[in-house]
Amino acid sequence: MTSTVPNAVQHTDAAEPITMFGPDFPYAYDDFLAHPAGIGQIPATEHGTEVAVIGGGLSGIVAAYELMKMGLKPVVYEADEIGGRLRTVGFEGCDPELTAEMGAMRFPPSSTALQHYIDLVGLETKPFPNPLSPATPSTVVDLKGESHYARTIADLPQVYRDVMDAWNRCLDEGADFSDMNRAMRERDVPRIREIWAKLVQKLDNQTFYGFLCDSDAFKSFRHREIFGQVGFGTGGWDTDFPNSILEILRVVYTEADDHHRGIVGGSQQLPLRLWDREPQKIVHWPLGTSLSSLHDGEPRPAVTRLTRTAGNRITVTDATGDIRTYPAAIFTGQSWLLLSKIDCDDALFPIDHWTAMERTHYMESSKLFVPVDRPFWLDKAVDDRGVPTGRDVMSMTLTDRMTRGTYLLDNGPGEPAVICLSYTWCDDSLKWLPLSPNERMEVMLKSLGEIYRDVDIRKHIIGSPVTVSWENEPYFMGAFKANLPGHYRYQRRLFTHFMQDRLPADKRGLFLAGDDISWTAGWAEGAVQTALNAVWGVMTQFGGATDATNPGPGDVFDDIAPVELPED
Question: HSE-up of 10 (CA within 13 Å, CB side)?
């Protein structure tokens, strides 16, 4: 998803950065992680106890890493490879440093808990070339066969600025945007909760598109159409139009769509480095212990069966047929796996939680990348008379053609580079599903050839394309969760599952985590936050506690719990 329409407010150098803790549960996970007292401890009698962690994506690896530091023994199960949707791949026959991000590729500064781990493992980030960002030399918006070249939004026709203004007005009039943004920036929890409680009750049943249509600012269908195709911050969001407007507000309130940065060398390095990291502050285990060393280098294989057994324990069967029983487990995989690929005991969760998982709505997403010999797009164009125009021959491209979003990923002058020929969502992603990688590439090159008639992209390609359709990945079945109208109650059940003193005694011990359990699905920050919630839950189950000076998410839950809507 990409955009030319900037955020509704100008950013300032505030003393406190805004954080993606979100309006639903305004807990400062970044402060929790940074506190010198640490995030909690367990009784020495529990040291060395095994805890199953199912899923080796970011959420699972963060949870396992923090459990290990507390003195527990996480046993990580992973069906595919460590990283989950932090998946970085290379190109066959090309320099291994030339990579493509098949999943998460851009991260906002408001992902402050995520940034804690990025800093912890010593990764470098750099600005991501979103449309019209300072990191992007130029942008072309191509709609209905008409192209516009721009370096800033001021270079686009007036109608685009009108759409930007309409979105700003729509947010302020319908969702108290400026007031909420200010409260988020100041971490004014009472004010955040006051604004959000009213909006949840008012807007839970409203779609994104309906929210636009209800605004006087978007009376024009043409404006709504342009807005859907070009979007704001992170994209042309017409594919999100059927989703709940609350999902969209979480993104804009937390500035999740703004000032993105990419991880140099690829995002998958983050979970891989955590897997190998030997923490200096660790309980029970000797210095030099890592998740890797506890697993002899490899996680356990895919989980095929989950059951409750005597003593309210969780029994895990893996793909080798090995059966192990644990006093606690954390499940971080895509929640639909519990309905399909994993044979599950109904007693694992209360029926309302099963319903919430079954109702979860996932969005599709596809990408295709090709390696090229150099960033040729920075060559300067000439007109029909051979006179230089001052324009780049190719630009970051937003279009209503099949490609939708095309990104140009530069590794330096003259160095091999990468083009994401197409990044699409939902129905636009499903259009690619029947096609092979080469068939996809041919259609994409044809679409881009209609925009850049004098550019031979093909002659610069130096390797085979790599592609992904997340809806076709057997352990994902979609890119990420996106609530439909009326789904707030379901999401609340899943997010609050870590508060297990609210559950029947025979439904405890298995904790849900992962970005689709969070309020900010599709963002790695949500994976981190729910991992920390689950760690708090496991610690509490084992009789542990946080330091009084650094209360955890469960310690303050009653003060900042998500709004509870009536069930009747």
Answer: 2
Where are the extended beta strands (E) located within 46-197? 50-54, 73-77, 88-90, 99-101, 125-127, 139-143, 146-150
406: nearest Cα among 359, 455, 345, 352: 455
How many angstroms separate the Cα of 386 from the Cα of each of 376, 380, 381, 382, 389? Answer: 18, 11, 9, 5, 9
Structure tokens at 5: 């329409």
CA distance 527 to 29: 12
What are the helix (H) ranges across 341-469?
351-359, 426-430, 437-451
Segment 179-200 mean pLDDT? 94
Read off the pLDDT of residues 285-309 as tens digits, 9 standing for 90 and up. 999 999 999 999 999 999 999 999 9
- Reduce the secondary structure of 217-286 to three states and give it as a string: HHCCHHHHHHHHHHCECCECHHHHCCCEHHHHHHHHHCCCCCCCEEECCCCCHHHHHHHHCCCCCCCCCC
Closest CA relative to residue 254, chosen from 502, 481, 446, 520? 520
Partner residues linked to 430 by β-bridges: none
Distance (Å) of CA 461 to CA 368, 394, 447: 13, 15, 16
The residue behind tokens 């707030």 is: 488
**Helices 189-203 and 177-186, packing angle to 10 deg:** 140
363-to-61, 426, 429, 516, 522 alpha-carbon distances in Å: 24, 6, 9, 11, 10
What whole-number distance in Å separates Cα of residue 559 and Cα of residue 419? Answer: 47
Q: Distance between CA atoms of 540 and 546, rounded to whole angstroms? A: 9
Tokens describing residue 193:
């909760």
Whole-number pLDDT of residue 385: 85
pLDDT by residue (tens digit) across 7-62? 333 333 344 567 877 899 999 999 999 999 999 999 999 999 999 999 999 999 99
What are the tokens at 275?
Answer: 């897997």
98: phi > 0 → left, psi -120 to 50 → alpha, else beta; which?
beta
Cβ atoms of residues 449 and 402 within 8 Å: no
Averaged pLDDT score across all residues of the chain: 94
Average pLDDT of span 111-131: 97
User: Sign (positive/negative) of CA torsion 252, 126, 530, 104?
Assistant: positive
Cβ-in-10-Å burial (0-12, 13-18, 19+) of 504 comes to exposed
Measured torsion, CA atoms of residues 307, 309, 312, 318, in degrees rounded to the nearest 10: -40
| Beta strand pairing call for 73-77 and 50-54 | parallel
The two tokens of residue 98 are 């030339």
Burial bucket for residue 438 (CB in 10 Å: 0-12, 13-18, 19+): exposed
Would you say 101 and 92 are in contact if contact means Cβ atoms under 8 Å apart? Answer: no
The angle formed by the CA atoms of residues 235, 237 and 243, to the nearest 5 degrees, is 140
* Polymer length of the chain: 568
Cα–Cα distance for residue pair 103/85, rounded to 1 Å: 5
- Which of 413, 559, 534 minimizes the C-alpha distance to 65? 534
Q: What's the whole-number mean pLDDT along residues 474-479?
A: 94
- Please report how the helices 177-186 and 158-175 are oriented relative to each other, as an axis angle in degrees rounded to 10: 70
Read off the amino acid at residue 229. Answer: Q
